[in-house]
Design goal:
With about 375 residues, the chain is mainly alpha-helical. Helices cover about 70% and strands about 5% of the residues.
């Protein structure tokens, strides 16, 4: 296994995990809908318990994705997390309050009331997907940093990562991911909940969120395809700018283009089946499509000699899969460990099916032998 192969391999693994993470953020999207779809406490509890059975999958995938990216590309960790730490800290903190909320909302002795933790869930549901989109957008828009001779990171703004929140391109992807998470949540509820009051609201809100998602997604894709990008000379390691870089990446990688287009078609198929044919299987089409489309977009951010974390202050300090990766020995050792990933996926599939052995309803929450969130 060559060093080059391992660098490409680990960017592909990170891209796949990013796609899975975005799909699983339907949990966050659902949390933003608990007061929109439910008009009483019983209906709200149904929604929260349907999501509570899945929140750990999202949290675990986030940890695995972060660990993979930072272990395979440690210079990205030191540059992004070390320099733009405020953005990362806010992002991670909103996941902490999510974990606390699910565990303490219905716990005996809760002195804050269940509504306090419900608002915490809504904060996590809004900020989680939005900030995830903003952070991923920096793979294309970059950040204001430079590297010293010994790869010490110098951050060039006092906002320490918050400056990403004032870039329109980043905000568009943040809103797109938020709307996607809400759309997927509605599809998940349609599949997993049997309650007449909630079901009556799902289709109405799916029209709104689905349409807004398509608009913002098309805006982001058009912006991405027509923006200038960076390219690294594999021989000299020099970095320069080229027009329409990400568009040409897709064209020159036909397999990735097929994956992307297949993902988009599947996402739209899931939405259409639910809206026009009253199908409850839309989550599986749109969920699979989300993984494929996001994976393809992240792939073109790092493959084809493309810096995946451009520097807007010093172009030559931009990070690539070549200059930011771990050693050959480390990547090779990690490769053998990654062979167990299919076993993990099989366990997740088994656990998901075991948890979702039947749709949730009001009667199930009245039983005493289940854990209630």
């Amino acid at each position: 296994m060559s060093y080059l192969f391992l660098q490409y391999y680990w960017w592909a693994v990170g891209s796949l995990l990013c796609g899975l993470l975005v799909f699983l953020m339907f949990v966050q999207g659902g949390q933003t809908l608990i007061y929109t779809l439910a008009k009483d406490d019983d209906s709200r509890s149904i929604l929260i318990n349907a999501l509570g059975r899945k929140w750990e999958f999202t949290f675990t995938t986030l940890v695995v994705f972060g660990g993979t990216m930072f272990a395979a590309f440690p210079l990205f960790y030191s540059a992004s997390f070390g320099g733009g730490y405020w953005l990362w800290m806010i992002f991670l903190f909103c996941f902490i309050i999510q974990a606390v909320s699910y565990e303490f909302r219905m716990k005996a002795g809760n002195i804050y009331g269940h509504k306090t933790f419900e608002w915490f869930l809504m904060i996590n549901g809004t900020l989680g997907p939005f900030l995830a989109g903003v952070i991923v957008a920096t793979f294309y828009s970059g950040a204001a940093f430079s590297l010293s001779q010994y790869h010490t990171v110098i951050w060039h703004t006092s906002l320490r990562g918050l400056e990403a929140l004032i870039q329109p391109f980043n905000l568009v992807l943040g809103v797109t991911v938020l709307l996607l998470s809400r759309t997927l949540a509605l599809l998940y509820f349609a599949n997993n909940i049997r309650n007449d009051k909630i079901s009556a609201e799902i289709k109405k809100h799916l029209w709104i969120n689905g349409l807004l998602f398509v608009i913002f997604f098309l805006l982001f894709i058009a912006w991405l395809m027509f923006r200038d990008g960076y390219i690294v000379d594999i021989n000299t390691a020099g970095i320069s700018m080229v027009p329409y870089k990400y568009f040409w990446n897709l064209i020159q990688l036909p397999a990735v283009l097929i994956i992307f287009l297949s993902g988009v078609i599947l996402v739209l198929t899931g939405i259409i089946l639910t809206l026009f044919f009253d199908s409850i299987q839309g989550i599986w089409y749109s969920g699979t499509g989300t993984v494929l489309a996001v994976c393809a977009l992240v792939l073109i951010a790092g493959w084809m000699n493309t810096p995946f974390y451009p520097s807007t202050s010093d172009m030559q300090s931009s990070l690539t899969i070549f200059n930011a990766s771990s050693s050959h020995y480390t990547l090779k050792t990690m490769f053998y460990v990654s062979l167990f990933i299919p076993v993990v996926f099989a366990y997740i599939f088994y656990a998901w099916r075991a948890i979702n052995n039947k749709p949730i309803d009001s009667d199930e929450l009245k039983t005493k032998d289940i854990h209630k969130y």
